[in-house]
Design brief:
single chain; 9 strands; disordered N terminus
């Protein structure tokens, strides 16, 4: 009975380790609300905030993207293929997202921003009562 119970877990873990994708049921470390600064976390209208939801949906002030492919790239890194919409335009992006040692989310070659690299702090959003 134990072998039967462990079998699906081993298959799911094997797929993640092989970089074949992210199981839909597993929350990812990169999910949540992020901003350029803690001050931007408190400003709901800030253009410097973003959220990552459901493991594959990314939202900025005027841009939204959906990841069609997410592959592991190191222990705390992921490569994504994004289809995006923003300001009346549709476009694609292939960023690398990682969690730095200090807990910041780093996005290389992201779909928004002037720089090729953006760093975000995690925002602690209070839960609704």
């Amino acid at each position: 009975m134990r072998a039967v119970t462990r079998f699906p877990i081993v298959l799911g873990l094997g797929a993640v380790l092989a970089g074949e994708g992210v199981p839909a049921w597993a929350a990812q470390r990169y999910e949540g609300f992020w901003a350029s600064t803690k001050k931007d976390c408190r400003d709901q209208d800030s253009a410097n905030r973003m959220s990552i939801e459901g493991g594959n949906r990314l939202y900025w002030y005027e841009t939204r993207c959906r990841a069609s492919e997410i592959t592991a790239d190191g222990k705390l890194g992921w490569k994504m293929k994004l289809a995006c919409e923003g300001e009346g335009e549709k476009f694609r992006s292939n960023p690398r997202v990682s969690i730095a040692a200090d807990g910041r989310l780093v996005m290389d070659n992201g779909p928004v921003g002037q720089a090729k690299r953006q760093a975000y702090v995690r925002c602690e959003i209070p839960k609704s009562r």
